[in-house]
Design brief:
8 strands; 11 helices; single chain; binds cytidine-5'-monophosphate
């Protein structure tokens, strides 16, 4: 059981490594997003990997197929464990991304699709010309990701149960997790780690409850204990890749 991904949402490599040094790569994976990657670059990813961490490169690529393919190939060659692109880039872009990671030479990273950003509600979708309800659009894009050979989707814990039923082949990577008794920050709808796993999440992305804690190692241990207490089912599924 190895479902916890700690988001290293920091502006500098120094701050990110200070947290990473307090985490155990045998127990958690780490996520590098746009801010940290833009400031610290591939060298930071290599440093994390040298310490034994599996890295989820959360850059949400979205561009013409050739450009996304090139970015995915570069990420695969960097050796990341997981990377993501926007499913709304369309089938040709998704297939180009999949072909790129499959032919990159190194160990194939897990390829994850972002469906509808949780920051977009029905009105915001309407404004950009998407008349579908958010949930219907999530389902549509998850189906496209599955048909394009993707390994999983980023989804809210609320969507995880539905996607487990509709697209069982896809892994569900779920942010918006708050351990019992911690602050919600700017996340509006949150589930505890146990609730999210029960709802069908395969991987839990946790940021501030660990990164902003007075004692990050203790906060991480508390999340791991909460995960370990979940009986069998989704949490005990083999997640070795
Ligand atoms: O600090 P917190 O646990 O809220 O961090 C969650 C992480 O997951 C952040 O890196 C955030 O960008 C990311 N994320 C999210 N909601 C999404 C997609 C990604 O919170 N829908």
């Amino acid at each position: 059981m190895y479902p916890l991904i700690v988001a290293l949402d920091f502006p500098t490599a120094k701050a990110a490594m200070a947290l990473a040094e307090r985490l155990d790569p045998q127990q958690v994976r780490v996520k590098v997003g746009k801010e940290l990657f833009t400031s610290a670059g591939p060298a930071l990813v290599e440093s994390l990997q040298a310490r034994g961490f599996s890295v989820f490169l959360d850059l949400k690529f979205h561009d013409i197929p050739a450009t996304v393919a090139g970015a995915c190939r570069a990420a695969a060659e960097l050796g990341v464990w997981m990377l993501n692109v926007h499913a709304s880039g369309g089938r040709t872009m998704l297939e180009a991304a999949r072909n790129a990671v499959e032919t990159s030479g190194g160990k194939r990273p897990l390829l994850i699709a972002v469906t509808v950003l949780t920051s977009l509600d029905a009105a915001a979708l309407q404004e950009i010309g998407c008349t579908a309800a958010p949930q219907a659009q999530v389902e549509r894009l998850a189906a496209l990701a599955a048909a394009s050979g993707f390994d999983g989707v980023v989804c809210s814990a609320q969507e995880a149960a539905l996607l487990r039923e509709r697209q069982p082949s896809l892994l569900r990577v779920t942010p918006g997790i708050r351990p019992t008794g911690t602050a919600h920050d700017d996340q509006r709808r949150v589930l505890t780690p146990a609730e999210a796993l029960a709802a069908g999440a395969d991987y839990l992305v946790v940021g501030r409850p660990i990164s902003a804690a007075a004692d990050p190692a203790a906060a991480c241990a508390a999340v791991l204990a909460e995960i370990a207490a979940v009986p069998s089912t989704s949490a005990s599924r083999s997640l070795s890749s």
